[in-house]
Design a protein that fits this description.
Blueprint (H helix, E strand, L loop, with lengths): L10 H15 L11 H8 L3 H13 L3 E4 L3 E4 L4 E4 L6 H7 L4 E12 L2 H7 L6 E11 L2 E11 H4 L11 H9 L3 E13 L3 H6 L6 E11 L4 E10 L3 E4 L1
Parallel strand pairs: 3-10
Antiparallel strand pairs: 1-2, 4-5, 5-6, 6-9, 7-8, 8-9
């Protein structure tokens, strides 16, 4: 199978798009080993550097993963998420052509403490609504989301199914537009304990920790969030 030398698109991009198309269509299954560099050179009549450039792009975008001593395998593409987190998980999945879903793990009402009072600008008689969700893309666990809200303002969320987009729900039911990050801090940790079980990753797998406050269109805090995100499947962009 020969690529089009007369096409203005570079050969490595043609090859990249060809392989990506095979993965997207399911002809190459996720978890399946792809042909070696030498085999790809022969099959598509291109140089080794062309193959390496195409594979490097696909690896950077999360379509391929190299396993030392075993070869290169098709995998689930990464989600690219704005660093300021103004784009939620559901929208990030949609942009990547993936289906988002959520499972509520915990719903609890906590007494207010000084930290949450300051972060969420709570009244003296308020409480804190804590909701933990597992977020999935195409059925694959990618994130544990721990969100904290004013119970006075957002207590209705206690009885919502919360299987879809939180921000769409807030807009549709209450007219609240949650569209800006008031604070974002990203650090890195490794998976242990319940994180291993829930996210279905090996012990020691790298995780992003995203600590942030999301606000509405008026700059008022909507929720404080602490997220644990599978590092292999995520990239942050500015």
């Amino acid at each position: 199978m020969k690529l089009d030398d007369n096409n203005s698109m570079p050969l490595y991009l043609q090859l990249k798009n060809t392989i990506k198309g095979l993965i997207d269509s399911g002809e190459i299954q996720k978890g399946e080993k792809i042909p070696s560099e030498n085999e790809l050179c022969k099959k598509y009549d291109v140089s080794r550097i062309t193959v390496r450039n195409a594979l490097a792009d696909l690896e950077n975008e999360g379509y391929l993963i190299k396993k030392q001593g075993k070869g290169t395998f098709a995998t689930t593409p990464k989600l690219f998420r704005p660093l300021e987190d103004s784009v939620g998980f559901s929208e990030s999945c949609k942009n990547a052509g993936m289906q988002s879903s959520s499972v509520v793990l915990k719903r609890e009402i906590h007494p207010m403490d000084d930290r949450m009072k300051d972060i969420l600008k709570l009244d003296d008689n308020d409480q804190v609504l804590y909701i933990q969700r597992l977020r999935l893309a195409d059925g694959i666990p990618l994130m544990i989301e721990n969100n904290y809200y004013s119970y006075q303002k957002y207590g209705f969320l206690y009885n919502e199914p919360l299987t879809g987009s939180l921000y769409e729900l807030l807009a549709e039911k209450k007219g609240i537009i949650c569209d800006r990050s008031l604070k974002t801090v990203i650090t890195v940790t490794t998976a242990s304990g319940d994180l291993v079980k829930i996210l279905q990753v090996p012990i020691g797998a790298p995780l992003f920790v995203m600590d942030g406050i999301m606000g509405d269109e008026h700059g008022e805090p909507v929720h404080y969030s602490l997220q644990y995100i599978v590092g292999e499947k995520y990239s942050f962009v500015r």
